[in-house]
Amino acid sequence: MTRAGLVVVSLLLLELRYGAVAAPICHHGNGSCQVPSLTDLFDRVNLQSSRIHHISNDLRSQFEQHVPPHKNGIWRWKCHTHDIVTPQDKEDAQTLARERLMEVVLRLLAAWEDPLWQLHRALSQNQDRNQVSSVKALEMADMVQELRGGVTRMAERMKLLGALSNTVGFASPGRLLSPSSSSFYQQGQQHNDLLLCFNRDANKVQSYLRMLKCSTLPEQEC
User: How far apart (Å, rounded) are the C-alpha atoms in residues 79 and 185?
Assistant: First the structure.
């Protein structure tokens, strides 16, 4: 099989592996589907990231009506993702290689899957809490998992196109967190603190994905 043929087969296999964020574009009526372009994948993950950030802000606002935020804000050491080294600011992020920035995005997303499921379970068992909050927490957990699959799919596509080296790893959530980290929010930290931490990391993911699009597809408007 030629190299071009291998690339096409690889792309089709990747489409079957991940969820809706990376699903093929199908045209109703003629039954044909086409592999989404890298631009399409970037647009999808950025849209999904924006939705997650919006829901996170909404849910955090609901909690702050009952539990005021800390006077001095949330400190980095209070979040279970404190050991994931992230850029200090936008300028620092722009100096990082795409491989490093992509790895940070994947690590942050993987680190939040379990805590968000914990939040959903806790809220669903709390009779005093509006069940709308539980539903939103479940929605966030599902969307984060889907986004991680979409970003992983996009990174694999970038590798095939030579826009990303093979040094980016895709460790599972369980391998990224120590037992003490995975149970961090089970040890008494308030839901409001968890949401503050998630909102902070969701904002980072959103910013990093936009930067990756701009550096990978300079012809796009950024």
Answer: 9
